[in-house]
Write a structure and sequence with these properties.
mainly alpha; 10% strand; 5 helices; 98 residues
Length: 98
């Protein structure tokens, strides 16, 4: 299996129960989605979410997004809209049509 893109991990993080936009933005301000995911699964970032993260099928979720023609854009990485970059309240990730 090939490595998953950062958008796959951003989608998985956003899908965790109890994770809202502010939490996601805070996590992704400090590290990329894949790194945050690893920390979360290891219980090192926020133990409240570790069990749910370990039960989440990141690859399966990503495949479902792709089948529906959905991409996930991550703030600070192309092709996320640069016009939103200076906005401190901009979402950490956005859905986009492929």
């Amino acid at each position: 299996m090939s490595a998953l893109p950062e958008g796959a991990y951003a989608a998985a993080l956003a899908s965790l129960p109890g994770v809202g936009p502010r939490t996601l933005r805070t996590w992704l301000d400090d590290a990329g989605p894949a790194a945050v995911w690893r920390l979360l699964c290891d219980g090192g970032l926020d133990p409240r979410f570790a069990a749910a993260a370990r039960r989440t099928d990141v690859a399966g979720g990503w495949e479902a997004h792709r089948r529906r023609g959905i991409d996930v854009l991550v703030r600070g990485r192309p092709p996320y809209p640069s016009v939103l970059a200076p906005d401190g309240e901009a979402p950490a990730s956005r859905l986009s049509a492929l």
